[in-house]
TrEMBL record, chain A:
Residues 95-297 form the ABC transmembrane type-1 domain. Keywords: Cell membrane, Membrane, Transmembrane, Transmembrane helix, Transport. It is found in: Cell membrane. The chain crosses the membrane at residues 9-30, 101-122, 134-155, 175-193, 229-254, 274-300. InterPro entries: BPD_transp_1_N, MetI-like, MetI-like_sf. It is a multi-pass membrane protein. PROSITE patterns: ABC_TM1 (PS50928). One of its GO terms (cellular component) is plasma membrane. This is Oligopeptide transport system permease protein.
UniProtKB/TrEMBL annotation, chain B:
This is Oligopeptide transport system ATP-binding protein. Coiled coil: none annotated. Gene3D superfamilies: P-loop containing nucleotide triphosphate hydrolases. It is a peripheral membrane protein. GO terms for biological process: peptide transport. Transmembrane segments: none annotated. It is found in: Cell membrane. Signal peptide: none annotated. SMART domains: AAA. One of its GO terms (cellular component) is plasma membrane. The lineage of its organism: Bacteria, Bacillati, Bacillota, Bacilli, Bacillales. Residues 5-256 form the ABC transporter domain. Belongs to the ABC transporter superfamily.
Amino acid sequence: MARYIGKRLIYMVITLALIATFTFFLMKILPGSPIASASKLSPEQRAVVEARYGLNEPLPVQYFDYMFGLLKGDLGISINQFKGANVTDLILSRMGPSAQIGFQGMILGTIIGVLLGMVAALRQNTWIDYSSTLIAIIGISIPSFVFATLLQYWLGVKLEWFPVALWKDGFMSSVLPSIALAMFPLATAARFIRTEMIEVLSSDYITLAKAKGSSGFEVAFKHAFRNALIPLVTVLGPMAVGILTGSLVVEQVFAIPGIGEQFVKSIMVNDFSIIMGTTIFFSVFLIVVILIVDILYGIIDPRIRLSGGKN
Amino acid sequence: MKKILQVKDLELSFNTFNGEVKAIRGVNFDLYKGETLAIVGESGSGKSVTTKSIMRLLPEQSAVFKNGEILFDGRDLTKLSDKEMQKIRGKDISMIFQDPMTSLNPTMPIGRQITEPILKHQKISKSEAKKVAIDLLRLVGMPKPELRMKQYPHQFSGGQRQRIVIAISLACNPQILIADEPTTALDVTIQAQILELMKDLQKKIDTSIIFITHDLGVVANVADRVAVMYGGKIVEIGTVDEIFYNPQHPYTWGLLSSMPSLDTAESKLYAIPGTPPDLLAPPKGDAFALRSEYALQIDMEQNPPFFKVSDTHQAATWLLHPDAPRVEPPLSVIERMKKFPGSRYYEGGAV
């Protein structure tokens, strides 16, 4: 196992280097520059600014400078959005709220979704099953900002249980955005678990478990659940990355100073180093999650224990 | 001998989108202590459904008991609650399934799968249950059982997995063991080993076995008595010798004739013409009549009752009625009957 993870870590570094290179040159191909919008600058001023951020250097030099900085963990400084601020600090400070609502949303959605899916599968073709399907369809088809707005109106304005927006009251501020974010993983988990449980419940080893005298509850949780988890882990991993790294829409609706918002703004003003930094940060996240998912596969299903592990 | 299980006039249907499928249409049989009763018949004849209904393992939404009773220990299994049934399953009646590759949980170590029914039905500690499980594995011929307890099903071969399934089924010394085609998915050498093992174990723990199969070679090997099923009914039941050497029902004749044999010189293997009846709308008379060259007019109109051939042998065919015309069975069947004392073709000698 340790050898396998070591091998995977090396691949991860290579993948990251490739992503960084690719993003770097894509950025350079794109028209515009961080200071293009500042049209009032005189040519002299422009030259000074370019020199300050190394934008006057030939492309290969800029590339190696950047990659070298990356090796040292330096993501550079913001060029125009937050003039001169350290990008690593910017990302980390913005990451907190995003990660919190994302994490809460993921956990909430997954747990409720799994339970809904289990119940639906165990009571197939009853009203419980149909309502669970309905919830899942609603969760997938209605966009999160609609939920967000409805939650704000009912739980925020009408009932006044939670603050309507802004990031001021700690946990209470995070409740509504977390619920809004939870709908999609909830719906997905419910659908996947239902389908997979129905499949698993009709398999021979479930009949054998019943033939041993196990009750329906024991059969579902001791025998079927673990076997129904694999497809869910596959979709939830990458989804978790997407949600943890910030949902732009939900952050906008609730006025949360999250990373999604900052990322989009930096693209609009061409703030090269923030775009690069955020991309690399997201990539690291995704690659680590994929590794975790692969390790989870082996824990859930012994048939796919990873190579290089001890037998 | 003591009757351990009585199935009386059992009728069971499946409700499907197309209508009611009458899968079992009046099945009667007794199971005696310590015997092996084989149920044979082609696919769809109702043999698996019959045994699954004894265990009540059929999907409850669609399978409905229409009539009859299944008496075990003085209780009618068709009327028990789920809770009461759970206490019987795995303890008094247990089951071995057809495909050992799919009948073990792939994500659970086999040790836990074996101890599960023990812990469920007996009041013993986990470590004691583990010891019992190791003994069971040894009993079914698994080498190094202590080491293998922690392994997962995919680390075993097909034959070994069937041994594990057998170990699970024997965990609580059941009074009845239902084996639903336990050797069908195994290759021939392993089949023989598993059959030997089952015969051996039956002697050791004195259990009754209901053995479902469509392989007559296996039947000859393991069974004391044989019930032949067709179209959701038992059409003939008797001791293994009576069924093999003095068969009376045209369907049994067909089955025996379609069994390859090393003795016969015929180069072409016989096959029963036609297809099994549609149980959505079962035929009025004898379900086999449409495929039988021996069918009488009355077979099309009335269901034949059981006619007694001997104390242990009964067959449901109008051919046994005193007024029925005398028909000659197929040649290969006559050859068999020549060896059976008491049959009308008996030529002396013994089976």
